[in-house]
Amino acid sequence: MTESTLREVGLPHVKPPTLRTTTPSAPPRGGAGPTGNPRAAAGATRPAETQKPPPDAASDKATSAFIRRTLCVHNVLLGNGEKGRNTPRPIDEVLPPLTSSNDVDLQLYAIISVIIKEFVQTWYSKITPDHVFVNEVIQIIAHCTRALEQRLRKVDLEALVLDEIPGLVEAHVSAFRLGRRQAQHHQSLVSDHRTVYHTLHPHPALSPVPTETVPSSLVEQRENESVWRQLLVQGVLAVLLPTEDLENACLRALVAEIFAEMILGNGISDKACEGWLLWEGITRIAEVLQDHSKEVDVQSKSTLPEQEQSLSRLERYGLLSQPSAGDLSAPGQQPPMPDQRRHLGSPWSVMFWLVVQYAFLACNAMRQMIIGFATSSSFPPRSVTGAGGQSPVEASRQSHMPHMEHPTSRRPLALKRPIVSMKLWSCSALLIGLDLRMPWLSGLISLLHWGVVAGPGRVGDTDGVLDRFLSHTIRMHVLNPAFVPILLRTVRATLFPNNTLGPPRKTPTVEEARLIKRRCATTLVGLLPTRVAVMFFATEDSAVQSAHMEELLDCLDDAYLNKHLIFQIVELIVVRLVPELGERGVRELLEERLEERVG
Questions:
Q1: Same domain membership, residue 182 and residue 264
Q2: What is the 3-state secondary structure (H, E, C) of 361-380?
Q3: Number of structural domains, the chain?
Q4: What are the two backbone dihedrals, phi and then psi, of residue 223, each rounded to the nearest 5 degrees?
Q5: CB under 8 Å to 74, separation ≥6 — which residues?
Q6: Which three-class secondary structure state does DSSP give residue 540?
Q7: Which terms are listed as keywords in the entry (predicted)?
Q8: Average of per-residue pLDDT values in the chain
Q9: How far is it between the farthest Cα atoms of the chain?
Q10: How confident is the model at residue 168 (pLDDT cuts 50, 70, 90)?
Q11: Euclidean distance between the first and the last CA atom of the chain, given in angstroms as a whole number
Q12: Looking at the chain, which terminus has fewer C-beta neighbours within 10 angstroms, N or C?
């Protein structure tokens, strides 16, 4: 309406408001905005540092929300108890259980959600909007994981983690060093270290040895590797899948393609076998250990007063001699106060109190060991007393052992290997070259090992006092099931940051890989105490110590040789979980399952 029209009607004329732009640095007085609301003005002028931080994608709440958006959409569409609820139902009530632990299921479903979102829904949503295939895949995975959990309970994890896998690592390091020495030998007929290694440890998936001079060998080796992955996954599915799903060849082929190509192919074969990636993983683990040790030191120092933190224990209790007048004449030093009473002592008194301190620490450590050994009798035995309680691994081992009985012992022959005799210790000694750097220490350790295993009391033999104590300690601090969710969350945050595929990692150049290796060596040297590093490397120069550590990391240089180790570890774990694959082929297992269905 115009101004004349408003005058005729008798209404006052109101000018239209003018828009004014004000900067946040000059708000109106009184803290009120244009509307007179102080909260609006406070929100408009809130500094950036007071804003809420972005939510953590690895937290349980964010993980549950991500799983619902990816896997539980069908529940909302169908109205299965989700619509109209103020608080959504827990994940364990919406999706089928994967294991007996809800915390483990949450992390496993988060990893499955990332895989399905990135590798399945990207092409499946273009074909049809339904979720039937995704639901079938989830049901199959849930059935397989529950079956694997039941089989995992029968596996000797101590032997697998402490003996069998370190045995493969020890064989890998020995073959690598032998192949490199043989290739460097000028009078050798074989000058390729890959050929020497593959001859010592042949693998059908890695044959023939790929060489740039023969391009056909590269193609043939990749085809053999692809066939090996398919056979491995098809064999596992032939044992774990339900019979109804096993008959569906299309569904079985899709599931096998996901695990064989996306997980084993892209994840393990193409990435996990690269030397620079393994060095980065070792560096991250070492950095975590360094941060943990620093936190312990800070906590121990924070309990002391500030004035006492700079003093040693002997100085705090007045057991060191008072500094002389000549020493106090230096600038920046204050003379002692009259009320400070320090006992005057010679270097002999200082040595005496140091001996007392270390003797006290040794007695305290001995006391803890005695208490642990005394309570070890209440721990369950590790030996197998009957055939009914044997695991498939132990039963397969004993079938190849001759039936013999020790004349001086009535213990059954079906005993597990003592923990002090497992391959973990010999593998560690080989990795650091203990027999070459410190042969006297290697001989002393061998003598102590013989004493605890075959000496008086046999405290280190199977079911001995030391053996039970070590077994209990390892199960509490290493093989604790409570660490599984933490490990899965760490793996997911590393592989899939923010629940998505990270940007493709650019393969580092030769110089960049060398820097990654050097950083890994420096971090590992930092884990060692200064005196131990100086004694072990026989030098105080940190650069020389890092160079020696880089030589120890050379066994991870070649990705092709790393595949031998990684593939053998994968096969070992699969055979321990599915021992049927070590006895029969994939075709025989499929025919047996299908014949049971027909029968």
A1: yes
A2: HHHHHHHHHHHHHHHHHHCC
A3: 2
A4: -65, -45
A5: 131, 134, 135
A6: coil
A7: Cytoplasm
A8: 76
A9: 126
A10: very high
A11: 90
A12: C
Query: Is 410 within a domain?
Result: no
Alpha-carbon gap, residue 566 to 382, rounded angstroms: 29
Which amino acid is present at 503? P
Of 132, 152, 172, which one is at a domain's C-terminal end? 152
Domain stops at, among 110, 134, 152: 152
DSSP state of 83: T
Q: Which 8-state DSSP code applies to residue 224?
A: H
Give the C-alpha separation, 193 to 177, whole Å: 9
Over 80: is that where the pLDDT of 116 sits?
yes
Q: Is residue 367 part of a domain?
A: no
Same domain for 234 and 267, yes or no, is yes
Query: Once rounded to an integer, what is the mean pLDDT over residues 285-291?
Result: 81
For 91, the domain range is: 60-152
Buried b (16+ CB within 10 A) or exposed e, 214-237: eeeeeeebeebbbebbbbbbbbbb
With b meaning 16 or more CB within 10 Å and e meaning fewer, what string describes 286-309? Answer: beeeeeeeeeeeeeeeeeeeeeee
3-state secondary structure of 211: strand
What whole-number distance in Å separates Cα of residue 528 and Cα of residue 540? 13
Instruction: Kindly state whether residues 111 and 197 are assigned to the same domain.
Output: no
CB 186 within 8 A of CB 194: no
Query: Which pLDDT does position 163 carry in this prediction?
Result: 94
CA distance 215 to 212: 6
146 with 162, same domain?
A: no
Asked if residue 433 belongs to a domain, the reply is: no
Does residue 145 sit in the same domain as residue 161?
no
Question: Do residues 246 and 128 share a domain?
Answer: no
Asked if residue 515 has pLDDT above 50, the reply is: yes
Residue 465 located in a structural domain: no
Residue pLDDT, tens place only, 30-79: 444 444 444 444 444 444 444 554 556 778 888 888 998 888 866 544 44
Would you tell me the crossing angle of helices 215-240 and 249-257 to the nearest 10 degrees? 120
The CA distance from 371 to 359, in Å, is 18
